[in-house]
Design brief:
The complex is a heterodimer of chains A (123) and B (226).
Chain A lengths: L2 H21 L6 H14 L5 H13 L6 H5 L5 H4 L3 H38 L1
Helix pairs in contact in A: 1-2, 1-3
Chain B lengths: L1 H5 L2 H22 L6 H16 L3 H12 L2 H6 L1 H7 L1 H6 L1 H25 L4 H7 L6 H10 L4 H25 L5 H23 L1 H22 L3
Helix pairs in contact in B: 2-3, 2-4, 8-9, 8-12, 8-13, 9-11, 10-11, 11-12, 12-13
Classes of the chains: A mainly alpha (123), B mainly alpha (226).
Chain lengths: 123, 226
């Protein structure tokens, strides 16, 4: 599909996401709904990868650019953050290895249980 | 002259893109993880605005246009899920349970720590999704009364920690399974960690990029119960 068509499709999915978010009774991010929607369309082959691939690849490769203004807006909050700065960084840094460890352990445990079950079935 | 130029949306647009290009160039030259393009770009823009005295609201006229792309860049993450569908199918349960437990620990861990240090509602809601990828973290934070700027700063801090230390985590905690390594890295440090996971191996890279999307979805759901 040509570039404009691809953009229209991606924007359309995002618009649908906004629509669904507006009618949902809970605060669920529209962009995440759009992602789930697009993944569903791709997996059910309603949308083929070639329909969005060209534009999507450019967007994914340059994704961080989209965060520049949002991240810059933190300067408006300097006065607000100042008393929180040390605990804020500490929380972000310290919880990271914990999340890694817990996730990795859980995955290893599930894999082990699955393998044991699989081995039991074979025997 | 500068004031007139700064008042047009083109100013924020140009400054954002230029600063990001510069950040990329520095990263390419130094190849140092902490020389993150986003971090450098944001530092440059804040310095430039402070030195010239141009108000943030002028920058935001162009910045808001880029902000509108946050939705679409999140949506196209679906392509990553699609491209990894085979691995996802093969390891569906470990991915789902691992990401669920990881996201829950991250979300509620941050909540508990914020409560402990008596942070107010805005700070707590902004920090809560720090293990998600920026686009999703900003969306979660904003829909719960958090601030996009603080949320992305938290994401950046968590991501850089993972990008720098994840190979060390793997060795230190003796995680041998490549699937567990990849999911762990993706769950704790999203896209920034994924670059490191890819260096560890193909399975680690694929698992880490799956974890970004799955953890994003699970965190959005868990955040509803906060």
């Amino acid at each position: 599909m040509n570039v404009v068509g691809q953009i229209a499709l991606i924007f359309g999915v995002c618009l649908a996401g906004e629509g669904i978010a507006a009618v949902l009774p809970v605060k669920f991010p529209a962009s995440v709904i759009a992602m789930i929607l697009l993944a569903g369309l791709l997996l059910t082959r309603v949308v083929k990868p070639r329909h969005i691939e060209g534009v999507s690849k450019v967007m994914l490769a340059n994704m961080a650019l989209a965060f520049v203004p949002a991240c810059t807006s933190v300067m408006q909050r300097f006065v607000y953050i100042k008393p929180y700065l040390v605990p804020f960084l500490l929380i972000c840094v310290a919880t990271t290895p914990v999340v890694f460890l817990v996730t990795a352990w859980t995955v290893q445990l599930v894999l082990k249980l699955q393998r044991r079950k699989g081995a039991g079935r074979d025997a | 002259m500068l004031k007139t130029l700064a008042a047009t949306p083109m100013f924020g647009l140009t400054l954002s893109v230029l600063a990001f290009c510069f950040g990329r160039w520095v990263q390419k030259k130094t190849k140092f993880v902490l020389c993150n393009p986003l971090l450098i770009a944001v530092a440059c823009i804040i310095t430039f605005l402070s030195v010239t005295g141009i108000p943030y609201s002028d920058f935001a006229k162009g910045g808001d246009i880029i902000n509108m792309m946050l939705g679409p860049v999140t949506a196209v993450l679906a392509l990553n899920v699609y491209n990894q569908r085979r691995v996802l199918g093969e390891y569906f349960l470990p991915v789902l349970i691992g990401c669920l437990v990881g996201s829950a620990v991250s979300l509620f861990g941050v909540l508990a720590l914020c409560k402990l240090m008596q942070a107010d509602q805005m700070m707590t809601m902004s920090m809560m999704p720090k293990s998600c990828t920026s686009a999703i973290a900003i969306a979660i934070a904003e829909s719960h009364g958090g601030d996009a700027g603080i949320a992305s700063a938290g994401v950046l801090a968590a991501g850089l920690t993972g990008a720098v230390f994840s190979p060390l985590f793997v060795k230190l905690f003796k995680i041998k399974d490549p699937v567990a390594q990849g999911l762990g890295i993706g769950a704790c440090s999203h896209a920034l960690g994924t670059t490191k996971a890819m260096e560890l191996g193909q399975i680690q890279g694929a698992m880490s990029s799956i974890a970004i999307c799955v953890c994003g979805i699970i965190s959005s759901i868990l955040a509803l119960f906060v």
